[in-house]
């Protein structure tokens, strides 16, 4: 029969063992977490270019190259990002499309415009994201995984009119709740853009007046920051032949071999990055969702989700 003192001793030993095991697990989790953050802050600067091809132009049209930028989230002092942005002219785009969230700091506008100066020499169109209107606020680093959220208290405002003017002075076209036709290579491109659905600011304004009755070769492109399903539905049902969006950061922290855990909106996570077809009420449109170039200022890491610009080569059908 086991005496009580030896039983108590074994319980004490088991307790010590469990405490030591828990401490070891906590230390290992801490080390793994710290290593993840170190890696993630390295990966956030591994900028790359994703190349896509789409045969959606009318037959006989000249190939057309779009450079899609999104979610730059610029902060003064980001020299590596600035140098990489300047280098993107090597892709010689016919058009730059910027789908918003350019800023992550109230003093970022001048250095961002400086970094984009070479690309501002090219034709461009843009829509804003919520981070062009409001500065980021310190939140839990895990807040990115809490799903789409609306701020309860208004965060500090950014000088979006100044950035919009900077783009506009260079000739880039503001598509916030606006539509406009532009002609390139003797072909008309009809754009319809929306303000940011993440702030419930979006309004579809249709296509440029008269464009529906024209028989000249043309292409309809929808542009929006956050790819909420309601925005994609509206643009798809209206006959967009291509939609460009950003906002998701591709999930920002992904599981290797699986992908994004969040899209920061109601878009399914498997669509958080890449070129996919969107269908609504019998209409279909290819949607390119950029994984973006930057990160949230207060969650400055990426894992299995490198920052990207996207070169979309549009080719004639057939
Ligand atoms: Fe963003």
Describe this protein's structure.
The protein has 318 residues and is an alpha/beta fold. It has two domains: 43 residues; 268 residues, Metallo-dependent phosphatases (Purple Acid Phosphatase, chain A, domain 2), CATH 3.60.21.10. 26% of the residues lie in helices and 24% in strands. It is built from six helices and 14 strands. It has a six-stranded mixed β-sheet, covered by helices on one side. The mean pLDDT is 91. The site of fe (ii) ion has 8 residues, from loops. Fe (ii) ion binds next to loops.
Task: Offer a concise description of the structure.
The chain has 318 residues and is an alpha/beta fold. The protein has six helices and 14 strands.
Write the layout of secondary structure elements.
Elements: H1 4-43, E1 48-57, E2 64-69, H2 79-87, E3 95-98, H3 109-120, E4 124-126, H4 130-133, H5 160-169, E5 173-174, E6 179-184, E7 187-193, E8 218-223, H6 229-237, E9 242-245, E10 254-255, E11 259-260, E12 274-280, E13 283-289, E14 308-316
Parallel strand pairs: 1-14, 2-3, 3-4, 4-5, 7-8, 8-9, 9-13
Antiparallel strand pairs: 2-14, 6-7, 10-11, 12-13
Helix pairs in contact: 2-3, 3-5
Bound molecules: fe (ii) ion.
Fe (ii) ion is lined by residues 71, 73, 101, 129, 131, 247, 249, 292.
């Amino acid at each position: 029969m086991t005496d009580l003192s030896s039983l108590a001793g074994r319980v004490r030993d088991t307790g010590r063992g469990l405490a030591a095991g828990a401490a070891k697990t906590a230390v290992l989790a801490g080390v793994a977490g710290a290593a993840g953050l170190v890696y993630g802050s390295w990966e956030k600067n591994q900028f790359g270019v994703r190349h896509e091809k789409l045969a959606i132009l009318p037959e006989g049209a000249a190939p057309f190259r779009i450079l899609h930028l999104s979610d730059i989230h610029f902060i003064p002092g980001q020299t590596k990002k600035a140098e990489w942005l300047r280098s993107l002219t090597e892709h010689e785009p016919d058009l730059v499309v910027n789908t918003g969230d350019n800023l992550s700091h109230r003093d970022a506008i001048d250095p961002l415009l400086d970094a984009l100066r070479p690309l501002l020499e090219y034709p461009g169109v843009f829509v804003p994201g919520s981070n062009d209107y409001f500065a980021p606020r310190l939140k839990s680093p895990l807040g990115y995984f809490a799903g789409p959220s609306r701020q309860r208290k208004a965060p500090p405002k950014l000088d979006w009119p100044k950035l919009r003017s900077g783009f506009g002075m260079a000739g880039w076209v503001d598509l916030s709740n606006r539509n406009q036709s532009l002609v390139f290579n003797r072909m008309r491109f009809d754009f319809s853009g929306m303000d940011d659905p993440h702030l419930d600011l979006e309004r579809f304004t249709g296509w440029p007046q008269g464009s529906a009755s024209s028989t000249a070769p043309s292409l309809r492109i929808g542009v929006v920051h956050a790819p909420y399903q309601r925005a994609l539905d509206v643009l798809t049902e209206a006959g967009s032949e291509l939609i460009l969006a950003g906002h998701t950061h591709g999930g920002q922290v992904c599981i290797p071999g699986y992908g994004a855990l969040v899209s920061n909106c109601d878009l399914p996570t498997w669509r958080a990055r890449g070129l996919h077809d969107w269908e609504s009420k019998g209409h279909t449109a290819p949607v390119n969702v950029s994984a973006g170039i930057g990160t949230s200022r207060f969650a400055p890491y990426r894992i299995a989700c490198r920052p990207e610009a996207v070169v979309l080569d549009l080719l004639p059908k057939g």
